[in-house]
Amino acid sequence: MGTQVFFWTHNEAEEAHKGSQANKHEVTLVLGLTTYLLDNGLLPEQITAVTPYVGQLRALKAALSEHNLGIDVQTVDSFQGGENDIIILSLVRTKALTQFIKREDRMVVALSRARFAMYIFGNASLLEKSGSPHWERAMQLLKQPWGGVRPRLGQALPLCCSRHPTSVAAAYPGRPFPSKFCPNVCGESYEGCDNDNHICTKPCHPGTHEKCPYPCEKILDCGHPCKRKCWQDCDCMVWTEVELGCSHQEMVGYDEDKDEIRYRVVPHVQTVKCGESPLECDRVVPKVRSECMHEVHVPCNVDPNKEACHLCEEEERREAEEAARQKAEEERRALEAQQAREEAEKKAREAREEAEK
What we know:
Blueprint: E1 5-9, E2 15-17, E3 20-22, H1 24-39, E4 47-51, H2 54-66, E5 72-75, E6 84-90, H3 99-102, H4 104-111, E7 114-122, H5 124-128, H6 133-142, E8 153-154, E9 157-160, E10 168-171, E11 239-243, E12 249-253, H7 258-262, E13 284-288, E14 295-299, H8 310-356
Parallel strand pairs: 1-7, 1-8, 4-5, 4-6, 6-7
Antiparallel strand pairs: 2-3, 9-10, 11-12, 13-14
């Protein structure tokens, strides 16, 4: 996020809701912010949405449940004594404040429950003119930029990449939250991988990196380099040819017991009439293709290299799907970047026109 404390001001009116008050606009904003936070690695149990009104409580619970977001929602009164890492405060009222909101004890509860970050939705102008010294003081503090640079009050929520803080964007009412606005390469290490050169080279994205996809290449006790993926358990995948007791050749793993394999009996028995030649054995057996070293199950008399390898076909299919997915992602990111540029140009043009007036 661009700031740990932010007041997202708006003037969309509340409405009566089953004997209480609710604000659909704030429900939409809370839903978007919650989705963004969860997509960027926060857990549902780290976030609590708080509101003064039971009507808004019901509306928030319904919307969050519909999208399976699973965060806690409380009224200000029921949350006394509670706290959480992230607090999202929905004030609801934009037309007029009641004594219910102005009370200092409720304000203290509402603004003191966050351990790390708090995001408030409401009408800043209304609170500034509320006649409540506590809210007026709070609004004065929120007008002071966080760190002397980033705003803490406005009509658009500032966002920044958690991995690349110089990559920034903003969320505007009525538009989807920017999900992947950072143009940088991810650059994160993989969990459990001790090779500093193994970093994620995908475009910057949320989430963890559990399985390192790089080749392992550690030297095994047999002297061969491990050919598995870095996250997989090491073993030797080098194959060697062994002559069986019947004078046939068989490809086996380098670290397998050669004597056990060499004298293995293959009980493929045929009964033929006297004077007839033995038929070609069609018993299905496992064989290793020398082209890819994958094991295939083929009739005993069939050369495995002449049969299609379903493992190779599956790998090719996955690679094609991944290439298509990456292409689609690149096209989507390019479209988002173009839209962002057009939006920036539009705002700059509007600013110039306003200045010329």
